[in-house]
Design brief:
By secondary structure, this protein is mainly α.
Length: about 180
């Protein structure tokens, strides 16, 4: 078994996980993922999907017979896709920087796709927002802040659905202690 952070931090696997995060209800077939992740060759995508299945980070949620082939649909195994404190603590400085770099690149890619969409559809108004602030908190206040933030994100994540009445938003939070 590999270190989970190392499995998750690969750029192709991050793209797969991102695609599955946006399609939680029915999952995605490999062919559907290929249409979403256009810059990854099919054989490479298959290989990385298998790694994620082997590590139980994604799961097969249904199978459908198409002629003589069984088409598999994959979904994110949300609990397994999280990096534990233990997994994070054993990473080297370089591995942590690589993971954060891939994370930031994934955000940049999403924002670039969003700007392209705004450009293609004149009726879409750019409503992205960015914030950066320093908070001066005691350890206890910071723990409360983190718990409150996690509760808030979890609350809204659990109430989201993929119906046509809702719009997908990406919320990214980075917390960098100064000491």
């Amino acid at each position: 078994m590999r270190n989970k952070a190392e499995v998750l931090m690969h750029p192709v696997r991050m793209k797969i996980l991102q695609a599955l995060m946006h399609n939680t209800d029915e999952g995605l077939s490999t062919l559907e993922m290929i249409s979403v992740i256009k810059d990854v060759p099919q054989a490479t995508l298959y290989r990385h999907i298998q790694i994620l299945v082997d590590e139980s980070i994604i799961k097969i949620v249904k199978e459908r017979k198409v002629r003589s082939v069984t088409e598999k649909f994959y979904a994110l195994n949300e609990d397994a896709a999280k990096i534990s404190k233990e997994d994070w603590s054993i990473l080297t400085k370089k591995q942590k920087l690589n993971y954060i770099s891939y994370y930031q690149l994934a955000l940049l890619s999403q924002y670039q796709n969003y700007l392209n969409l705004c450009e293609e559809n004149e009726h879409i108004v750019d409503s992205a927002t960015f914030s950066l602030l320093d908070l001066s908190l005691t350890k206890e206040q910071f723990n409360h802040f983190q718990n409150d933030l996690n509760d808030l994100l979890t609350k809204y994540y659990n109430m989201s659905d993929s119906s046509n009445a809702t719009e997908l938003k990406t919320i990214a939070v980075n917390i960098i202690p100064k000491s």
